[in-house]
Amino acid sequence: MLDLHRLILLREVRARGSMSAAARELNYSHSAISQQLALLEREVGVALLERVGRAVKLTPAGEDLVRNTEVILAAVERAESDLALAHERPQGVVTVAVFATIARSVMPAVLADLAERLPALDVRLRLCDPDDAVARLVARKVDAVITDAFPGTPGPAGVPGPGGGIHSTLLGADPVRGYLPPGVDGARGDLHGVPWVMEPRETASAQWAMRVCRERGFEPHVVHESSDVLFHLRLVERGLAAAFLPDMVVREAGTALVPSSELPSDQERGIVFLSRAGAEERPALVAVREAVRARLVS
């Protein structure tokens, strides 16, 4: 009998390109993953990994096993979802990884709504960096992820492509608008010298913002970097930087900031619900997903 946990580890090594990278993503030690995969090789009776310099790659047998692993994992998720349908109402523990903005502005109301309507459902939130959240989902440490996605950019690192074991549902859109410090007149070309605050440059948000600025005809002077978007808003309020701010953040802060007419006003980010393939119709996850969707459109 193949060990499901070891199959997941093998899949992560393939996705990350090395045992060390897989260990970092899954919060394991290198030696622990090495030992588990050695046991898996003994179980199947063939070599699954081969060294390429300091990295490892899967043998043809290993590649075949990972392809079958995706099918196995989806079947397990569907079986668990089917069993859950035996209950009249969603119940049990559901752990959801969320990003900071939605955790503050939307999820308290969602939790209150679910607690009132479905008292047997125990929803537990984990505030996570989006990339870490996906790794936790793949490793079965959380049941779902609520994250954001920006047009023209890849999703969070670690999300497999189509058929790669993750099911994605778009819940809604959150407009993102540009804000300039007081006294800056974009029409006069001041945009070329104004300081900006953005998320770290490797994030989808920053890549999207840089592209929008360049399409507007200027290279933004990024002075501050922070993943805390509320910090971005406070800098704009003080006249210290320009920023792109999601409406969700502006509403939560109750600020009187007015978006700049010199920056695009038709941009938006998607709010996305991720679950493991096969689990998307699990009643508890459907209840959480639809409760979040209802709050986003209200």
At CATH's second level, what is the architecture of the largest domain?
3-Layer(aba) Sandwich
Which spans have pLDDT < 50 for at least 5 consecutive residues?
none
Molecular shape: flat
Number of domains: 2
Beta-strand residue fraction: 15-25%
Secondary-structure class: alpha/beta
Order of helices and strands: HHHEEHEHHEHEEEHEHEHEH
Largest sheet, in brief, is: 6 strands, mixed
- Helix segment count? 11
Subunit organisation of the chains: single chain
Quick one: CATH class of the largest domain? Alpha Beta
Please give a handful of descriptors for the protein shown.
298 residues, six-stranded mixed sheet
Your description of this structure?
By secondary structure, the chain is an alpha/beta fold. It has two domains: 78 residues, Winged helix-like DNA-binding domain superfamily/Winged helix DNA-binding domain (Arc Repressor Mutant, subunit A, Orthogonal Bundle), CATH 1.10.10.10; 209 residues, D-Maltodextrin-Binding Protein, domain 2. The protein has eleven helices and ten strands. A six-stranded mixed sheet has the order 4-3-5-10-6-9, sandwiched between helices. Strands 1-2 form a two-stranded antiparallel ribbon. A hairpin with a 2-residue loop joins strand 1 and strand 2. Helix 1 packs across helix 2. The chain is flat and about 70 Å long. It starts with a helix and ends with a helix. The model has no long low-confidence stretch (mean pLDDT 85).
